[in-house]
């Protein structure tokens, strides 16, 4: 009986790995099939954009006004949920945000470095 325990546990682990991988693939396929024009999405490389056009295996994302890039549909990792309280148009950057000039300095003073031996 003890000699069957290890093979059964290994078989169960391998079966679980296949099942979970298949479930993830199905969820990704369902997501890619549900994409529509106007959805805001994030690609696997971390690029956010709005779907401008859909092709057979490609999706055209508008990443900035007038800038459209073409991605393989499988590169879409997730859709960005819409906030119902947010206005339909995006607001421009205001002067209340921190500019790079106001940001703290990250430069290192060469005189402060210890001397090399």
UniProtKB/TrEMBL annotation:
Q: Which family does it belong to?
A: Belongs to the YajC family.
* Composition bias, Low complexity: 85-101
The subcellular localization recorded is:
Cell membrane
Its main localization is membrane
UniProt-recorded name of the protein: Preprotein translocase subunit YajC
Q: Does the keyword ATP-binding apply?
A: no
The segments labelled Disordered in the record are 81-117
Q: Which organism is it from?
A: Lapillicoccus jejuensis
* PANTHER family recorded: SEC TRANSLOCON ACCESSORY COMPLEX SUBUNIT YAJC (PTHR33909)
Q: How does it sit in the membrane?
A: Single-pass membrane protein
Which terms are listed as keywords in the entry?
Answer: Cell membrane, Membrane, Protein transport, Translocation, Transmembrane, Transmembrane helix, Transport
InterPro entries on file = Preprotein_translocase_YajC
**Superkingdom of this entry's organism?**
Bacteria
Q: Which BP terms in the Gene Ontology apply to this protein? A: protein transport
